[in-house]
Design a protein that fits this description.
5% helix, four-stranded antiparallel β-sheet, mainly beta, 3 helices, 373 residues, five-stranded antiparallel β-sheet
């Protein structure tokens, strides 16, 4: 459906776009609060000529910001940075000292949960070690883990009335890569889905056995990079979570390898009594169409298949004028799910241009109303 926005140069602006002239804006996750308002936590980091370009800035400086609106698909207003790397507050030893990113908001049993990733720099590696040639950006990227914060209200979150975890919720079990890797697993180790990193958390409750399912992305190199996914189970939304060895969203290319994907958002459709997942299909090899957002379904949240139409959305935005613009990036999909289980609004990180080499903050979060065909 059209979004309330117009194009101005390399960005969109308008009621259905969250952008910031002083910062890059990226993935955002929204829940409806007990106050009837819509609360967003989103990834952001400062931009400018003296700061790193996007591709380095998100790894080195990502923070989580809070915005709120009276409407689910427009008018989100920035309020405060609510989480940042703990080194900025004096603790350079914490697992999330360098950065925090990938926000995923959920509400379970009257409480709110903010799942996120964090990382710290493990430091320059010893000479002749497999990680000796890595720069800080890549050392931090290879050290990403998942955490969670539980809170009672967004007032508590904004005021800092919550406990920040001293340890990650989920960490990788294997670290397998041919070269340029910090803390590699012993030679001959078979990589698990949670290989090197665990990122892109998405959590859902499974009514059949009252388990919480935490989906995550790991990295494979065989020999080229591909994003693979796994799932971990728990009796509580705060864990502990036990990862399975199964790959999920296990769609194969012609050579038998898992098609590269990332950014899953998983929800349980309570009227259809099945799980759905929307995620970024890098090449279009999952849907058999162009690159964009793909859709899979599952009865148990573990074994996933393609529905009749697995193509969820093109990399384009339809403006209020009716014009459509092709975008370079449309990812980090998060959804607002209606009481009947149907998605109502898509929140996506977006850029019109290739954002990686820029320092100008030309990225934004777009809120797209959805309707069922």
């Amino acid at each position: 459906m059209p979004v309330a926005a117009i194009q101005e140069g390399n960005i969109l602006s308008g009621p259905s776009v969250l952008n910031d002239p002083d910062r890059f804006v990226w993935g955002g996750s929204v829940v409806k609060g007990d106050d009837g308002k819509y609360h967003m936590i989103y990834n952001t980091f400062e931009c400018g000529d003296s700061l790193p370009e996007f591709t380095n800035g998100w790894v080195l400086h990502s923070k989580l910001a809070y915005a709120v609106s009276n409407h689910p698909e427009r008018d989100f207003e920035f309020k405060k940075i609510v989480l940042r790397g703990r080194a900025l507050d004096g603790d350079s030893t914490a697992w999330d000292a360098q950065m925090v990113s990938n926000p995923h908001l959920k509400k379970f049993n009257g409480k709110y949960y903010l799942y996120f990733i964090g990382s710290k720099d493990p430091g320059i590696q010893p000479p002749d070690s497999p990680g000796a040639q890595l720069n800080k950006r890549n050392r931090v990227q290879q050290n990403q883990k998942i955490g969670v914060i539980e809170f009672d209200s967004f007032k508590d979150l904004v005021e800092g009335n919550f406990e920040r975890p001293d340890t990650p919720l989920l960490s990788p079990r294997t670290r397998v890569k041919p070269d340029n890797i910090v803390f590699p697993s012993p030679e001959g180790t078979e990589p698990k889905p949670d290989n090197i990193i665990v990122v892109n958390p998405s959590v859902e409750y499974r009514p059949a056995d009252e388990k919480y399912l935490l989906y995550f992305k790991g990295n494979f190199y065989d020999p080229n990079w591909r994003g693979v996914h796994g799932v971990a189970l728990s009796d509580l939304p705060t864990g502990p979570f036990t990862p399975l060895d199964d790959f999920v969203f296990d769609m194969r290319t012609e050579d038998g390898k898992i098609a590269s994907a990332e950014d899953p958002y998983v929800w349980y459709h309570n009227t259809q009594e099945k799980f759905y997942a929307v995620f970024k299909d890098f090449s279009g090899k999952i849907t058999g169409r162009e690159a964009g957002l793909a859709l899979l379904e599952s009865d148990d949240g573990i074994k996933w298949v393609k529905p009749e139409n697995p193509f969820f959305m093109k990399k384009q935005v339809v403006l209020q004028s009716g014009d459509s613009i092709k975008v370079n990036r449309l990812e980090r999909p998060q959804l607002l799910i209606g009481s009947n289980g149907d998605p109502k609004v898509l929140y996506a990180a977006c850029s019109i241009i290739n954002i990686n080499p820029t320092k100008k903050g030309e990225s934004f979060n777009v809120q797209i109303p959805l309707r069922k065909k």
